[in-house]
Amino acid sequence: MKQSSLSNLVQPFHVMELVKAADALQAQGKPVIHLSIGEPDFPMPEPVEQALIQAVSAHKTRYTAALGLPELREAISRHYEQQFKVRVPAHQIVITSGASAALMFACLALINRTDKVLLTDPGYPCNKTFVQMAGGVPDFVQTHEAQNFQPSWADLREQWTRHTAGVLLASPNNPTGTQLNAQSMKDIVHGVNTLGGFVIVDEIYQSLCYDQPAQSVLQLTGAPSDRMPVVVINSFSKYFGMTGLRLGWMVVPDTLLPAIERFAQNLSICPNTPAQWAALACFTPETLAICEERRQIFKARRDFMVTSLPKAGIELHSTPDSAFYIYAKSPYDSERYCKDLLEQALVCAVPGKDFSEFRGSEMMRLSYANSMDNLKTAIERIRLFNKGQLP
Ligand SMILES: Cc1ncc(COP(=O)(O)O)c(C=O)c1O
User: Fold this and answer.
1) Do 321 and 230 share a structural domain?
2) How far, in Å, is the centroid of ligand 1 from the Cα of 236?
3) Count of domains for the chain
4) pLDDT value of position 228
5) Ligand 1 mean position to 354 CA, how many Å?
6) What are the E-state strand segments in the chain?
7) CA distance 138 to 125
8) Which tens digits make up the pLDDT trace of 171-229?
9) Which residues of the chain have pLDDT under 70?
10) Is residue 228 part of a domain?
11) Same domain as 381, residue 310
12) Which residues does ligand 1 sit against, CB inside 6 Å?
């Protein structure tokens, strides 16, 4: 069958080859440790699980409104007020099937054919696909260690052309585990606004931060509007540990709502209904206490990894303060290194190729979404491997 040109445009994840090799080793009984995982190693919090079971038992399994359950939109609005002291009307909050659908809807609503969209390199690999699906052209902005792999307004301005429609950022970012500081974010939003562009800010890892309180661009801009054309993306996947429930949200200016609603109606009808009811349990003190405890566990792991990796022979050039990733320099070509590390040390890390066009072969991503015991074993194996002392 003849395939569309779009199907050839979408890139596979190179890491899948490595994960397949890791799975094959595990199937042979080899104790592989994954530092490759992009999701929390915790189950969904107990109160959420209970709420999910109750929702299913009560047959809350039919479609909801395309923009999501009003109760959940209200709960998220209260959450912004309580945690960030920012008033975001519930009607500007749209529930989606994960941050993925939110990113897709945002791109479809904002990008015209052949529009250029600035994306950070390194960055989340699927962003490129969302832009392309909307007919746009991804334009990668190289970021550097010295700025914690986040762009400045000057970096973006330099690459901005008359064909550029906007910019898609993530703070904290994947694969770097670093955030944009408030001043840079402010400069970017202001600068892009002056040029009449849009800013999409993916805040999926927002509450998983370890050195300062969680931040939102909405603290700087207030609720999005035509005067402040920001779209915020978020998700229940990471902080709330609900990856498989496929639930996220976006905050959009009023004028974008009808378009987003049409995309939602046509492309997904509505987000997962039982998951939406379950998510109402996320913002309760009980669940937030569980998530806070887990955040502390992630922080302890981050501290351990940041101090241990250099001793094990892996250089860090940035300060990962969020998410559960460390983007580090690979001792040699990262694809070969990660393959060797897997085969010889049974540690699975991810080469930078999926995240970076510019320096992917130099860098690799290590995830600490794994138990402290496993992290300790992994570090020891990496140390021995790097010294050529593996038994
Ligand atoms: C930066 C970033 N944005 C979006 C997503 C998609 O997340 P979701 O599970 O909410 O669709 C991911 C997943 O890893 C991510 O790392």
Assistant:
1) no
2) 10
3) 2
4) 85
5) 14
6) 33-34, 93-96, 116-121, 137-142, 164-170, 198-202, 230-235, 248-251, 325-329, 347-348, 350-351, 363-367
7) 11
8) 999 999 999 999 999 999 999 999 999 999 999 999 999 999 999 999 999 999 988 88
9) none
10) yes
11) yes
12) 38, 98-100, 124, 170, 174, 202, 204, 235, 237, 243, 248
